[in-house]
Amino acid sequence: MPDTPVATPPMTAGDAACDLVTVPTRQGLEAVDILRRGAGEAVGPVLHDDGCDTLGFLVPAGTAACWDVPGSTCTETDGRGLRLTPEPPVEGSDWLVPPGESDLATDPVVLRRALGEAARLIKAADSCR
């Protein structure tokens, strides 16, 4: 896992309740593509850090309590939501999939499946070198 994870954006009362799943950029980009191609499987807002080391998927609050996908982390928001505005929520980050162009959050079951498929694709591609 990269040393510079996407920082948790500032929280404000009344925002959408969500947690943040952080993954390495390569796996995250593959997962975004998989989610976008999936039948009826929408992707929620996705952040990337300035160094392009990680992507952060917004998922429903409470996901962190049971998140166990190797190579990723899930940060709780303690019941407080993220500011879902077009502006980057954290200095040094930006939206890959901005709010308003996506669902409110990515379904964690669907994200888990997409991240698994992405990891298998990356492993297969790397073994062909």
Low-pLDDT parts are 1-14
Please state roughly what percent of the residues sit in beta strands, choosing from under 5%, 5-15%, 15-25%, 25-35%, 35-45% or over 45%: 15-25%
Q: How many β strands by DSSP?
A: 7
Structural class: alpha+beta
Sheet with the most strands, sense and barrel status: 7 strands, antiparallel
Average of pLDDT: 81
Order of helices and strands: EEHEEEEEH
Dominant shape: globular
Helix content: 25-40%
Region (Disordered): 77-103
Structure description:
Residues 77-103 are annotated as: Disordered. By secondary structure, the chain is of the alpha+beta class. The chain has one domain. The chain contains two helices and seven strands. It has helices at 25-37, 108-127, and strands spanning 11-12, 16-24, 46-49, 54-60, 73-75, 81-82, 93-97. Strands 1, 2, 3, 4, 5, 6 and 7 form a seven-stranded antiparallel sheet that branches. The protein is globular and about 40 Å long.
Give short descriptive properties of this protein.
129 residues, alpha+beta, 25% strand, 2 helices, single chain, disordered N terminus, seven-stranded antiparallel β-sheet, 7 strands
Provide a brief overview of the structure.
This protein has helices at residues 25-37, 108-127, and strands at residues 11-12, 16-24, 46-49, 54-60, 73-75, 81-82, 93-97. It is of the alpha+beta class and 129 residues long.
